[in-house]
Design a protein that fits this description.
About 50% of the residues lie in helices and about 5% in strands. It has helices at about 10-20, 40-50, 65-70, 100-110, 115-120, 135-145, 165-175, 195-200, 215-220, 230-235, 240-245, 250-265, 270-285, 285-310, 325-330, 335-350, 355-375; strands at about 30-35, 80, 155-160, 185-190, 205. It has a five-stranded parallel β-sheet with strand order 2-3-4-1-5, sandwiched between helices. The two termini are about 45 Å apart. The model has no long low-confidence stretch (mean pLDDT about 90). The structure holds zinc ion.
Length: about 375
């Protein structure tokens, strides 16, 4: 994670970052942002390693000096990692990053593409409220008041600054506005829109775009993962989702099973079952819910096409009682277009971190109207 070559993506962005470092144009406050599951996190780590490396090369940190070796283990004494945490009195957790640093190191070293949801699952605290609390700002100030251990830069590395409590953010502003000598603040964000403008306006930002389907497919193939093409199509450029699906041997079967059930309960507007299914999906990762909707889009598209050109049954549905020919009878080019629009906007809502349960319940009712009556009553669109 400390070499810029550890992920093969974002060549243009990496080139600019390395160039500005050697030109001395790098700011003391840098923001790396972009959608989940791309290479911004490992690039930010590689940049931190470069700042601290004893013998930097034009490709980045040397990876062999003492500083690089400590960075590789995320134990460098001059780097302070700050990330969303939860409080838990029964485990003596007061909500400071330091208390969970060992778990966090393991989590990000094993998966540099992880999301907040993955992190919550990693520490078995999915139902808890995670944020960067006020107590953290005091800790950062204290750390920054000490001299650096090696006499070089001191780095505060903030993962997911969108989860900074507003008071914490306000306290940090002083560090961003009036930086101490040789102090660098690095932030890695996935929800730029939720950052305070007072912060973003004071930081040098680099945007890391969503990975392409091709980039995800190649990464999966390089790891000899089966069904790389199908998984890449479902993952929406999110490598964390692609790996999550690949890790479950029956992920595709599960998507097919969920889709069959979803269409049945939506068609018959079975509310208790709709709520249960929405709840089930909300317990999975955000990436899984988005992959499920992406899978639904593809299946609807296939159903419309099969009306014109009958095709063989999709083998993914082999273990379900789903029959494409039957499904194709209730989708036609008109309602399919409306269905796909509704599903598309649900994907954006889930990506924007709306509640999966609420989005899925609302979407199921819309799907019901579109499948059974061909249109959505105006009353539903007030919300
Ligand atoms: Zn080095």
């Amino acid at each position: 994670m400390i070499s810029f070559d550890d992920n093969p993506f974002h060549q243009k962005e990496k080139g600019l970052i390395i160039q500005s470092f050697f030109d001395g144009r790098n700011s003391h406050a840098q923001l790396f942002h972009g959608p989940s599951g791309n290479g911004k996190f490992s690039t930010a780590m590689a940049y931190t390693a470069l700042l601290l490396c004893e013998q930097p090369t034009e490709r980045g940190a040397c990876t062999t000096c003492t500083s690089c070796k400590q960075m590789a283990k995320l134990t460098h004494p001059d780097v302070h990692f700050v990330f969303p945490t939860h409080k838990d009195a029964s485990n003596d957790l007061t909500g400071r990053s330091e208390e969970l640093i060992k778990q966090w190191r393991n989590a990000v070293i094993s998966n540099p593409y992880l999301s907040l949801g993955d992190w919550k699952r990693f520490v078995d605290a999915e139902q808890k409220n995670f944020e960067i609390r006020v107590i953290e700002a005091e800790y950062i100030n204290e750390k920054l008041s000490f001299k650096s251990f090696y006499g070089g830069y001191k780095v505060v590395f903030i993962w997911l600054p969108e989860d900074l409590h507003p008071s914490t953010a306000n306290k940090l502003l002083k560090n961003i506005e009036e930086p101490e000598d040789k102090t660098v603040i690095i932030m890695v964000s996935e929800r730029y829109g939720q950052l305070m403008p007072t912060i973003t306006s004071r930081m040098q930002s680099v945007y890391f775009p969503r990975l392409t389907e091709e980039e995800v497919r190649r990464t999966l193939e390089a790891k000899n993962i089966e069904s790389a093409q199908v998984l890449a199509q479902l993952a929406e450029g999110n490598l964390a989702t692609a790996f999550e699906l690949a890790d479950q041997s029956d992920a595709l079967t599960e998507l097919a099973r969920y889709f069959t059930l979803w269409m049945r309960v939506s068609y018959s507007v079975n509310m208790p079952e709709i709520v249960k299914l929405s709840e089930d999906l909300s317990k999975k990762s955000r990436g899984f819910a988005m992959a499920f909707l992406q899978f639904s889009l593809q299946t609807i598209r296939q159903a419309v096409l099969s009306n014109f050109r009958p095709s063989a049954e999709n083998p993914i549905f082999a273990n379900t009682d789903f029959k494409m020919a039957n499904f194709a009878k209730i989708v036609n080019p008109e309602n399919a277009w409306l269905l796909m629009n509704e599903i598309d906007s649900a994907i954006s809502d889930i990506d924007r971190t709306c509640s999966i349960k609420i989005v899925m319940t609302d979407l199921s009712i819309r799907v019901h109207y579109l499948l059974k009556r061909g249109g959505i009553p105006k009353a539903l669109d007030i919300f």
